[in-house]
């Protein structure tokens, strides 16, 4: 709004709309780059964008704000800009000519100057500090460079207006096309097929490609151009490898794809958390998931995508990282908790087996006892499997059990007859810890009791009510409990838990443990997204269990009931390979 008259001038609305569209273009390119299931066969750099690069590029959109401020000043100084016509074809032609004849060579020489030692070390090195190209990398630069870019993008617009050919459509078109092509060049996935240059050889001098620009980031004395390699050819700075590398990446698409050593097979929890993926919002996915108000407008769209996934989608790659030369990937089964997923889990296991994956670890719902017996169904159905199927619950149990102090005498256990509940009870009774097992099924309790050593069976006690634990300050929650049920715990109780979702922390006089998880070793590379509510670099214990299985090279399947005798062995192996429990990390 300007002075007293509502909508006297529309420049403010145009600037706001242009800024929104510019951000949207960058976000679309970011989403495309992070759709690894679409782009992995045409990656230029095989490493992932890690948390450091994401944090460094967090304010990538500063240049949009800067240019909006400069545009606002121009509109206030030159009121005639508000009287531009909507459309003028001559303006498009003029801006294109000015871009080719002035902006392109100006940027080329300015870029070469920025590579001189002083300017590079004090300014341009920031832009080159991003190891993996990404559309947001285009905006990762110093204010001086942004001002130079303002000049480059502003000359064709200003010149067209001064010639009398300016129009609103020309300004929109020039700015948005400029951003689109910049994002294309900073993409880590090649999008231009090499056949285009075979049919139109001269075209390679008039439009660059992601491969072309990537060579500038590795061999910095070449490929300086803005969008047109013609000026590199004229300046004798065109990298001779450009065309050959471009052809290699596009023609070998899918042929030289690296096979992952380990796969964590995850699943979607709910509609809101489905937006916690790198291809939705990279910055949001790089922080632990929690409900945010800005997600609500996207709920209907996410719901529609869920319906499409339910009908047509297959298991897909969502994230990856490298650990000691081994490629670890996370695949997602495109089914929500209320949909049948057994068929898709089986297909994912068979696909992993065909590819040559060594270990595949199953997330919570994917190893549900009622669905597939903790993975037993698939192993029995396909005895010829070479991939090792792992539920990871042995390490989950180890993480929970190692949270306890050595002088503990009594615990209260809910979900006592579940897979993890059984293993926890049998392990603790061997340590002469009294376990109050909450279960109404005497048959299940007796079955577990018979597995315990004879001299330890008296440490397992069946209880049927929460009141039995009103004097016990150590609760192990394996089945979700209500606030009323929590009220039976005495003051000072600590709630250990392996239930998903976690219980509500309503007792201020009690403490609540996190879900069983472990921090990956510090030498992990290319990790840039958080696993659900986990902190950066932290994964669920079942994920970590699969990692340990792969690093150790164990040849057995880990499915079905937990082998209590292996709990300490798996725990020691995890620590040996540099994984750390969250409790020790936080302490």
UniProtKB/TrEMBL annotation:
Residues 411-581 form the Very-long-chain aldehyde decarbonylase CER1-like C-terminal domain. GO terms for molecular function: iron ion binding; oxidoreductase activity. Its main location: membrane. One of its GO terms (biological process) is lipid biosynthetic process. One of its GO terms (cellular component) is membrane. The chain crosses the membrane at residues 12-29, 64-84, 91-110, 293-312. It is a multi-pass membrane protein. The keyword DNA repair does not apply. PANTHER family: STEROL DESATURASE (PTHR11863). This is Protein ECERIFERUM 3-like. It comes from Gossypium australe.
């Amino acid at each position: 709004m300007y002075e007293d008259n509502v909508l006297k001038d529309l420049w403010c609305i145009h600037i706001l709309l242009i800024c929104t569209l510019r951000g949207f273009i960058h976000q679309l390119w970011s989403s495309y780059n992070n759709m690894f299931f679409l782009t992995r066969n045409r990656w230029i750099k095989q490493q992932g964008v890690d948390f450091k690069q994401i944090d460094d590029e967090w304010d990538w959109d500063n240049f949009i704000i800067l240019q909006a401020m400069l545009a606002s000043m121009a509109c206030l100084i030159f009121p005639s800009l508000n009287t531009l016509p909507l459309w003028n074809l001559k303006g498009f032609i003029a801006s294109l000519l000015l871009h080719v004849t002035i902006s392109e060579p100006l940027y080329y020489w300015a870029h070469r100057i920025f590579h001189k030692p002083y300017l590079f070390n004090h300014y341009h090195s920031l832009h080159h500090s991003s190891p993996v190209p990404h559309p947001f990398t285009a905006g990762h630069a110093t204010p001086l460079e942004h001002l130079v870019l303002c000049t480059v993008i502003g000359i064709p617009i200003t010149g067209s207006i001064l010639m009398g050919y300016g129009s609103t459509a020309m300004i929109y078109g020039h700015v948005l096309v400029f951003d689109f092509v910049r994002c294309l060049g900073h993409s880590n996935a090649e999008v231009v097929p090499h056949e285009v240059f075979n049919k139109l050889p001269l075209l390679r001098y008039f439009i660059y490609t992601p491969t072309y620009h990537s060579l500038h980031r590795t061999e910095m004395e070449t490929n300086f151009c803005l969008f047109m390699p013609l000026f590199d050819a004229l300046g004798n700075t065109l990298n001779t490898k450009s065309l050959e590398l471009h052809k290699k990446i596009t023609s070998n698409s899918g042929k030289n794809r690296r096979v992952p050593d380990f796969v964590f097979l995850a699943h979607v929890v709910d509609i809101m958390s489905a937006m916690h993926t790198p291809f939705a919002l990279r910055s949001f996915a790089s922080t632990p998931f929690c409900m945010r108000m800005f997600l609500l407008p996207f709920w209907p769209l996410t719901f529609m995508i869920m319906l499409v996934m339910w009908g047509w989608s297959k298991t897909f790659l969502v994230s990856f990282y490298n650990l000691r030369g081994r490629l670890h990937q996370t695949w997602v089964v495109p089914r929500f908790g209320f949909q049948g997923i057994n068929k898709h889990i089986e297909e994912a296991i068979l696909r992993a087996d065909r590819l040559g994956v060594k270990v595949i670890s199953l997330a919570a719902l994917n190893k549900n006892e009622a669905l597939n017996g903790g993975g037993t169904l698939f192993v029995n159905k396909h005895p010829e499997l070479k991939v090792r199927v792992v539920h990871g619950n042995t390490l989950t149990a180890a993480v929970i059990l190692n949270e306890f102090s050595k002088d503990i005498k009594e615990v209260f256990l809910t979900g006592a007859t579940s897979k993890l509940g059984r293993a926890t009870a049998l392990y603790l009774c061997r340590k002469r810890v009294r376990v109050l097992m909450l279960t109404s099924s005497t048959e299940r309790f007796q079955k577990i009791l018979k597995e315990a050593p004879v001299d330890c069976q008296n440490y397992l006690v069946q209880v049927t009510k929460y009141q039995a634990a009103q004097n016990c300050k150590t609760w192990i929650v394996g089945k979700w409990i209500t606030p009323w049920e929590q009220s039976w715990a005495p003051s000072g109780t600590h709630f250990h838990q392996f239930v998903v979702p976690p219980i509500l922390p309503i007792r201020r006089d009690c403490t609540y443990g996190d879900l069983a998880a472990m921090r990956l070793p510090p030498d992990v590379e290319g990790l840039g997204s958080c696993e659900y509510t986990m902190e950066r670099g932290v994964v669920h214990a079942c994920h970590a269990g699969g990692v340990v299985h792969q690093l150790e090279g164990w040849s057995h399947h880990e499915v079905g009931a937990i082998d209590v005798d292996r709990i300490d062995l798996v725990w020691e192996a995890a620590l040996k390979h540099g994984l750390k429990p969250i409790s020790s990390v936080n302490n």
